[in-house]
Amino acid sequence: MRKASLFFVFLVLMLSLHAFSSMYAVTTDNQIVLLKDDGTWEAVKEAVDKYGIPKVQIDVPFVFENIAITIKNIFKYGDCIIFDFFIFNNSDEMISMDYISFDLRDIEGFNYDLRTYSSEAPEKYINRRLNGKIRPHGSLRGYLFLEISEDIELNELYVNHSDFFSSKTAVVSIRDIKIETLK
Hints:
The protein is mainly β. The protein has helices at 2-20, 123-126, and strands at 24-26, 32-35, 41-43, 62-64, 67-77, 80-89, 95-96, 100-106, 111-113, 133-134, 139-147, 154-162, 167-173, 180-181. The longest helix is centred in the first third of the chain and has 19 residues, at 2-20.
């Protein structure tokens, strides 16, 4: 029985590693681990800002409930900010993106909704928007958009997960993430 459990944990780690396409994985207890050069795994210690809010980096996942969310990149194109997300469902249940929303807060405290459509973004990004369902232990990648005509300094990302029974929110600091400009 112990061998079967260890094999299952190993299998989940390998699948998670493949899904993230980087040197990070999520264990069955939702811990993020890093594959070191010597082939061993090391638990990732979450950096926090001065208010205790976890900081995230590009290409490093953060876990919210049974969902691992990775910001692959953030681009600016004209009056549109494009967020490239990768989401891994680490649960045994199907997850619908209809129940997950993303909000931004700037350093002045203003709140913005990320949307699945933008009239400003290039078509190749609009066609790959973040929507649909994620099967158990499956993944989804796509773009969300924020249209804004002024320059803002991003501060926090709020991830809201609601269903018929509950509503939960995670907040992470994105203040240190650099926004690339698309041409």
